[in-house]
Records
---
Amino acid sequence: MKVDKDIITKIISSDKRAIAKALTLVENDDEGSEKLLKELYKHTGRTSKIGITGPPGAGKSTLTNCLVKLMSDKGYKIGVIAVDPTSPFTGGALLGDRIRMQEVGLLENVFIRSMATRGSLGGLSKNIVEACEVLDASGKDFIIIETVGVGQSELDIAQTTDTTIVVLVPESGDSVQAMKAGLMEIADIFVLNKSDRQGADGVVSTIKNIIHLKPPSKDGWIIDVLKTVGSQNEGIEELFNEIIKHKDHLEKSSYLTIKRKEHLSKKIKELVNNKLEINFWDDTKIRNLNERLEDIALKNKDPYSYVEEITK
Ligand SMILES: Nc1nc2c(ncn2[C@@H]2O[C@H](COP(=O)(O)OP(=O)(O)OP(=O)(O)O)[C@@H](O)[C@H]2O)c(=O)[nH]1
Ligand SMILES: [Mg+2]
């Protein structure tokens, strides 16, 4: 698709149709998307990017909805990217989720998009990071990215957000699970959702104990654990205040600049890897690999020598 100046102007002035079109380009990795992102880059950087992650069914979408409504009432512009789990065991967003999301999506200053992660080998999901850039350039005050915390991609996505909220529930062993999944490492704010259920206070203490055992974060931020009942819109104002507190902390400690530079560095490396990979595997190389595979499988040649040979 051709990228004209018109779409850039429209995105910057927050035109919903233009944003949707741009996100589709980015999602499909369309030829035009890179050109578009080049133009948009200078308009990015004012958005606060918030990641909401946690185990399946913890209430991430419910909390996202509550937060979006609250932020919208306060007059903020919000973008939401709901990352569909591609794992067969969660099976993607439930219909109820989608409908609730669609309702808040109708608000004038809210833009919501559901996206699938591309399993880019151990790296960031490029299309999601790029979608954030589009929303950022469109002048959103906040972008919320909802991901299921079960794998590596969530940790990577956390490395592109300014503030990461980890949502847990009182179910037994959840906090231990979260530790295993590495969620403890990435949290700026912990939320114990479904606090209407039994054992909530116990889990809050457990999480607090685990936080105390961690070395203090290098930017001096102290992680708090908040209780919410998403389904009853309880604790949302407090959660919002904590988000603002973290945002202020990052800005005042100049750690935001450091953090964003780290993210940028990581992103550039990813982009280079991507380019190199695409350029490397041309038809000749793929044909060559297919021809030689049999030989390598039969142990007539080892993969290491082959790699050495083709990367010379
Ligand atoms: N009891 C109780 N139920 C809740 C609460 N918050 C959400 N729920 C319910 O928990 C279920 C899952 O909520 P979602 O918001 O879809 O959870 P999620 O983390 O987005 O789920 P996935 O995206 O599938 O991983 C829904 O049926 C919600 O209504 C809460 O605070 N208390
Ligand atoms: Mg969800």
---
Amino acid sequence: MSLEESKIIKNENALSMEFMPEILPHRESQIQFIAKNLEPASRGRKPQNIFINGPPGIGKTASVKFVFRQFEEYSGIRSVYINTWDYSTSSALLTKITTELGIFVQRRGISKDEIIERLVDGLKKTNKGVVICLDEIDQLIKKDEGALYDLLRLNQYVENPIGIVAISNYKDIFLNLEPRIMSSLDLEEISFKSYTLDEMKSILNERCKDAFKDGAVEDGIVLLCANHAITRGGDVRVGLECLRKASRLAEDENSEKITIHHVKNILFTVKSVKMNIIKGNVEGVDKNIINILETKDDITSTNLREIYSKNYGNISHVAFRKHLNYLKNSGIIKERKTREGSRGRKVYISLVKRKVFK
Ligand SMILES: Nc1ncnc2c1ncn2[C@@H]1O[C@H](COP(=O)(O)OP(=O)(O)OP(=O)(O)O)[C@@H](O)[C@H]1O
Ligand SMILES: [Mg+2]
């Protein structure tokens, strides 16, 4: 059925995770906080760097993108948004920033210092302030901590200091960072709190207005979806996914509207969305390990490595351990250690079913 003929859907895009609504209800004060701290960049002054943390799906990324959109439209501040899952080494990150700012740089065969030179030249030519969001910054810190140092170093050469917004699900990611990086980062921290059921309801209601035709959503639907999202950890994406799937089912059944029956039928299929995103980003050895754990849960690390070698080829103990640590730190797997026995301590590995945040 084409969208024109749909009795229900006005704009399905409004239910996608990338969609940026006109307003972000219940994040007004956080948006103001972000804007206020970065705003000095519009007057050639040093912006206050920010660190945003909090559980998945509660508007951290959306709030920063919201502020960046306003900056681009009204303030003359240039903004660059980067998810460091995709750019997790210093060179990749610097190249991305350079190209995002419209400065030409070859993608290959160019040293890091040359990229920095290009970037500094470009920054000197513009009299606009620049702010950069490093989303999922734990990835960058895990893979190339020096990248942050390189980024901060740019401020020595340019007149208008760059502002940085770091985002992570984890509050303590900067704890082990080198003190000199920490002190030049000088982060102002803000923790986003989960939405209440009422807040989730009003957020989903707003999205329904964007996505569905008038009268296409039966009473009680939004409450059901909001409740499901809250019990699955409070991720708005879970609520959006429920709405999207229910509307698809309603269309398949050629219904005039989305009913409770449609929602109840799809609810059990919608699980933690963030974990699926993370798993989708993981590659190579890490991905293979997850594949094994999806069929064999809670097995010893020795056993896991044996299965790994059989299925995917040999891997050294040290290399394997490194991958397990990475997956553990990303919150994808968890370890359970037995007490020291006569044959040493055993470590059991399993997938984290749902991320738990303190
Ligand atoms: N207050 C809100 N109003 C409207 N939509 C919202 C609001 N908060 C979150 N959303 C929507 O929920 C989805 C998830 O939000 P966002 O990507 O900002 O989460 P996040 O906190 O960055 O999560 P993660 O830590 O997993 O990256 C997005 O589609 C976003 O538009
Ligand atoms: Mg995010």
